[in-house]
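Final report, closing paragraph on structural work. Over the funding period we assembled a curated collection of sequence-structure pairs, and we close with a single example.
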Amino acid sequence: MDDSDLAGSLLAALPVSGVSVATMGGLLRTETVSASDPVAARLDELQFDLGEGPCWDAVSERRPVFEANLRIAPRRTWPAFSRALLDHDAVEALHAFPLLLGPLALGAMELWCDRPGDLPDASARRASALAGQVSRHLLRRAVSDVADDQAEEVRVDKYSRRRIHQATGIVLAQADLSAEDAELLLQGHAFAQGVPMREVADAVLDGRLSFASGADGIVER
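Its predicted structure, as stored:
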């Protein structure tokens, strides 16, 4: 998956007018990673500047936000963002999908449509699946330096590597993830905290850190 045409490949798979992918929140810096067109990019920029909109809601609520008819019967209103949309009369519907991996919220994938209407169920399911793939891609990209450190660690400290494997087993049970995603989650937390992965693994094994799914997300004791 390549950032250069990430939005374009998503657009080709979904029945919408435009797509954007943005990182938002505390883990990754707030920015548009990819946009299929200027309208999609501008919708992201407005939400970054105003601090409100469907992408922010999707991230904070950890579930998709669907606005099938922004002009006549909006389900939600965002005071500043709704006013700004008046300058973009091509946008009739907006749908935002959170980019999540376990308890980590990375950002949002936004779909805009030039006609009002609900996103068909099959398309919504496909968009959710694609959002999961995008989440893994973004986190792998962000933790590439951590992964390099981890490779060095494998060469010099097999004991640390065993503890990482053990911690991965605990995390996959806590967060209901595959082994690959559980290890990626450990890497992401190490990246966010700026610490070696072995320290995160030790915290999990000692019971000081939990990735159990729930309202509180990652819990440190």
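The beta strands are 18-23, 31-35, 65-67, 93-101, 104-113, 209-210, 219-220. The mean pLDDT is 86. We thank the funder for supporting this effort.
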